[in-house]
Amino acid sequence: MSAVVLLALGWQAFAGEAQKQEAPTIMPDQTVQSGISNFIASIQGSSLESEEDFAAAIDSFFSANGSSNKVDLEQMLLAYGGKEEHLVNPQQEMLKRIMLARLVQGMDQEEVLEVVAPLLESTANARLVSNAHQVLGFSISKKGRSHPDQPGVRKYLSKHKDTPPYGFIKYLYRTGDEKAVDVVGSVYGDKSTPAYSDTGKRGLAAVEAVARGGRWWEELYAAEKMKQNPKLRDPELMKQLKKSNDPVVSATVQEIEDEKK
After folding, report:
1. pLDDT for 26-74, tens place per residue?
2. Do 172 and 185 form a contact (C-beta atoms < 8 A)?
3. Alpha-carbon torsion 93, 99, 105, 110, what sign?
4. What is the phi/psi pair of residue 50, to 5°?
5. What's the domain count of the chain?
6. Do 221 and 132 sit in the same domain of this protein?
7. pTM for the predicted model, two decimal places
8. Pick from 64, 56, 61: which is nearest to 79 by CA?
9. C-beta of residue 68 within 8 angstroms of C-beta of residue 107
10. Are residues 195 and 96 in the same domain?
11. Same structural domain, 9 and 124
């Protein structure tokens, strides 16, 4: 495959970018893993000269391997080595990244979230969490910012209303703006929940306005934004949020305080 095609496809992949749940464990399927490795080897030695031919080859591989989209996505998350492995095997990892992007872009958003959102509930496997972020970049984000006001996101949150996916919600808060808390509030709140993205407030004023709502998803937004940006860490607001009835909110504030030590 030509370097020009690989570079073009790689650029597209980069541009495409309560009760606490336990993060699931994904086990490798040796048959699928071998198939991925063999496909990568065959592509590296091929004479494909166009993006369309390469995309068609990826689609053919996933449709012919007999696995569901869920299994394919899980196994690609395991196969992709991320930034560290990219330094050692750049072309191989770029191909895996392109395969991952192509797979995700052909899946329903809710289907993607059912696989990757639970992985954000634990940081025990840093590479898997990082790969989950990559997938979310392909599925619900643009240029590094999440766009939560989408049907797939709302459906996923609604389906898990009784056990809020804190890790995923924190991701939306970290990578989005007040629209993220509006979307979360529309699922977990009621008709009295305000639309914070319409207030016109920015910075600390916006964070304080959300926190005053007093509900867990509002407090969590404020805590997560303060964790992300030291300039928003108002001492009184931090003291208030540390007393939150929601353990995830108070734990997030504790993480901020631990950073100072």
Report:
1. 999 999 999 999 999 998 877 776 778 888 999 999 999 999 999 999 9
2. no
3. negative
4. -130, 155
5. 2
6. no
7. 0.85
8. 61
9. no
10. no
11. yes
Four-point Cα dihedral 49, 52, 58, 60, nearest 10: -110
Last residue of a domain, one of 139, 171, 199: 139
At 86, list the tokens: 């990219």
Over the stretch 180-236, which tens digit does the pLDDT of each residue have?
999 999 999 887 777 888 777 889 999 999 999 999 999 999 999 999 999 999 999
Q: Domain ends where: 90, 124, 139?
A: 139
Residues 18 and 122 in one domain: yes
Q: Are residues 195 and 113 in the same domain?
A: no
**Structural domain harbouring 176:** 142-261
Which residue type is seen at 202? R
Both 12 and 117 in a single domain? yes
Burial of 80 (0-12, 13-18, 19+ CB in 10 A): buried
